[in-house]
Specification:
Rossmann fold; 2 domains; eight-stranded mixed beta sheet; elongated; ProC C-terminal domain-like fold; alpha/beta; about 270 residues
Length: about 270
C-alpha cells in the first residue's frame, strides 16, 4: 500500500511509525514537507521514505491513499495544490480539526472520495482513538483503506454524521489535555502534602494508569465504580463532596462542550474561504 502524506509533523510521523511497526515498508511512504529541518528529521527517523518539498505528480502518482496532515489554517492551500494530482487516488483522508468535507472537496476541484478523521495524541504510542466519517463517494474500498491507516495508531470509531466529528474533537481530540490537567492537580496536591516531586508523580501516574485499566476491564459504569470506593463518612466521600459542592463535574462537561463548539466555529471560519 503506497501512502502520501501532505505534512510531515508529529501525527504523520506517528501514523507512519505505527504502520511500519505493523509490517509496512518505509519505501511505501512519501511525505510532502516544505520545511528543510523537518525533512532532515524525517529522513533520520524513517530511513527509506520519499520526501518532497511540494505537492507534485511525483509525490502522488501511484498512491493508494493521500493523507492531509497539515494544520487547519493550511488546509485550503494544501488542497488546492493537490487538486490537479489526485484524480486517480482511491481515497484522500483529512485529519485536520474543523475542516469540512464539502469545503475540502470544493478546494480540490470537486474530488469527493474523501474521509475526515480526528485522531488524538496517544497515536504517538499507538494507543489513540480516531473518529471517522466518509463521504458516500469513498465507497467500501475507501473506508477500508482509511481504516487500515488509522488502525495503525489505535482504534477507529466510524460516525454516521460528519458534524459528530466536532464532538469527537471536544471529547477525545482535546481529551488528553484534560487528563494531563487532572494529573497536574493530583501531582500538585501530593507535593503540597509533603511528597517530593518524583514521589508525587509516581503516585499520580500510577493511580491514573491503574484506574483506567481497572475501569476498562469492568462492565460497571464509572459512577458505580466510584461509589464502590466511596465509603460513607470516609475520606473519599469528603473529597468528592468538595468537588460536587464546587460543581466540578458540570463545569467539566461544559468545558468539553466548549471545545466542541470551538471546533464548529473553526469549521465555519475555514469554510468561508474561497
Amino acid at each position: 500500500m503506497n501512502i502520501t502524506f501532505i505534512g510531515g509533523g508529529n501525527m504523520a510521523t506517528a501514523i507512519i511509525g505505527g504502520l511500519i511497526a505493523g509490517g509496512a515498508n518505509a519505501r511505501e511512504f512519501r511525505v510532502v514537507e516544505p520545511q528543510r529541518p523537518q525533512q532532515d528529521k524525517l529522513a533520520g527517523l524513517i530511513p527509506g521514505i520519499g520526501i518532497f518539498g511540494e505537492a507534485s505528480a511525483g509525490a502522488v502518482d501511484g498512491a493508494d491513499i493521500v493523507v492531509l496532515a497539515v494544520k487547519p489554517q493550511q488546509m485550503r492551500e494544501a488542497a488546492k495544490a493537490l487538486a490537479g494530482h489526485v484524480a486517480d487516488v482511491p481515497v484522500v483522508i483529512s485529519i485536520a480539526a474543523g475542516v469540512r468535507l464539502a469545503n475540502l472537496s470544493r478546494w480540490m476541484g470537486g474530488y469527493a472520495r474523501l474521509v475526515r478523521a480526528m485522531p488524538n495524541t496517544p497515536a504517538l504510542i499507538r494507543e489513540g482513538i480516531s473518529g471517522a466519517f466518509a463521504l458516500p463517494e469513498a465507497g467500501a474500498r475507501g473506508r477500508k483503506l482509511a481504516e487500515r491507516v488509522l488502525e495503525g495508531v489505535g482504534k477507529v470509531l466510524w460516525l454516521v454524521r460528519e458534524d459528530l466529528l466536532d464532538a469527537v474533537t471536544g471529547v477525545s481530540g482535546s481529551g488528553p489535555a484534560y487528563v494531563f490537567y487532572f494529573l497536574e492537580g493530583l501531582e500538585l496536591a501530593a507535593q503540597d502534602l509533603g511528597f517530593t516531586k518524583s514521589e508525587a508523580r509516581t503516585l499520580a501516574y500510577s493511580t491514573f494508569a491503574g484506574t483506567i485499566k481497572l475501569a476498562s476491564g469492568s462492565e460497571l459504569e464509572p459512577a458505580i465504580l466510584r461509589a464502590q470506593v466511596t465509603s460513607k463518612g470516609g475520606t473519599t466521600e469528603r473529597a468528592i463532596g468538595l468537588l460536587e459542592a464546587d460543581a466540578v463535574k458540570s463545569r467539566f462537561v461544559a468545558a468539553v462542550k466548549a471545545a466542541a463548539a470551538r471546533a464548529r466555529e473553526l469549521g465555519d471560519a475555514l469554510g468561508a474561504e474561497d
